[in-house]
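writing this on my phone so excuse typos. first protein, seq and then structure
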Amino acid sequence: MTIPVMIPWLGEEEAEAAAEAVRSGWVAQGPRVAAFEKAFAEHTGAPHAVAVSNCTTALHLAMIGAGVGPGDEVVVPSLSFVATANAVTYVGAVPVFADVDPATANLTPATVAPLLTARTRAVIAVDQGGVPVDLDAIRALVEPRGIAVVEDAACAAGSVYRGRPAGAGAAISAYSFHPRKLLTTGEGGMLTLQDGELAARLRRLREHGMSVSAADRHAGAGGAGVVETYDEIGFNHRMTDVQAAIGLVQLGKLPAMVARRRELADHYRELLGPELAARTVADPAHGTANFQSLWLLLPEDAPDRGEVLTRLAADGVSARRGIMAAHLEAPYKGTARVPLPATELITARSLILPLYHSLGHGQVQHVVSALKAALGR
């Protein structure tokens, strides 16, 4: 038996939606992308949504939208996929690494405050592993200083913050639809925004800065012979209609995905027992997680994590190392301005266990048994 760490929940409905897009003859960014944007905005409760090619390009556009540029600083958690820091670097700014709360693996006002300077232009608050960050607390700290908050909600589709979908309250939020996430389009991402003019600008920038989109030109918008202009330097950050067709189906499945993952997480905790269950990711006081990842902090007396992963693999269980720390990777090594003890502990001692929609309770039992054996429990 081999139990993978993740399997996307895809089926015939997604296959048919993609095939229908192909049969339509319109496979580039077009009407299905617009429909997906509308549906996603309605789902999150945000006024506007802009579909893009992936979450990294979403974060890139978010930095531009927040006015971040050369000479600016952006506070980010080191404990995040490297794309969070890279998006800051893309616009010529400097990522300033903050530590995280050990329980949620997210930024807090206490970890952000010591790093704020006159050059701080923005903070990127990550919903790590689908655990919603306490956005209001961070906004209350930095917005009076004129500092923007961008929510990196890459993992958070289906998570809830203070009774609303995670990401809904931020001026700009970025989501991922990578296959490791609950809702997937293969690759793909989304921005949600409060400002309609900014949303319109980012739609232009994702398509080379065109004043009139290719879809509108081909549909005849603006009359025959319309010639687009390029008023600022843009990018090719577009989503295709094939991806959006899959995304629309996936969005309809999202509530069931979240419910199933939360059920499986509860089953894991029950089987792990009090000691190990207390070391798994859990809901914060201000919301509920979608359990995009089920990560566990290994006990202090556990074998080396690499040995644990090897033993699990030998027992047919595919697990992964925990969340990375960007400040320990080559491009950013030596740039941390303050100690990051929680970040370094979590990145060194955490591992991610299998969790996906079709995972059976018997498979969860096998994973837990294998984990306990690997830990010598």
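second protein below, same order as before
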Amino acid sequence: MTNVYFFKSNNIIRIFQELVKGPKLARDLAKVINTASKEIYPRIRRYIQKGWVQVQKVNNINVYSLSETAKKILQLQGSFEKIKEKAEKALGRKLDEDEVEVLRFFYELNGYVERSENETIAEQIYYALKMRINLSRITEILDEFTKARVLFAYRLKNGLILKVRLNKNLLL
């Protein structure tokens, strides 16, 4: 589980890597990320709310484990081909070479890109792909992927895109 989607923090990645092995106490998870056990719940609360992590009380102690949904996501997360197939189904056609490269870019970057102060998301992709795909073509692909819900874009009211991420349903 080296390329984990959705996780912006290495500590959260390590916690999930530990939970993949089986149910754990907060103190066990705390050791993995070198923190106090009381810090574990606040760090994973959002994943509990999403239903990815389950909490069971045993003698007034929280035992954390992965839900079936999280297990499915983590199993599929290493399969670019399955993600590509689901993207093609969402678009209703086969992806061309440029589209595959843009999709792979998001896959390899853990599915999440933020606009920087100096570059748009399209420009970041353009430079990351070593200018192999025309910038206007990248913009077009991003628009198509967003309309087909392969990607989700977080926009300001003026239309400026701040963040783009892979649709998590591609991983289920």
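Residues 1-5 have pLDDT under 50 and may be disordered. thats all i got for now
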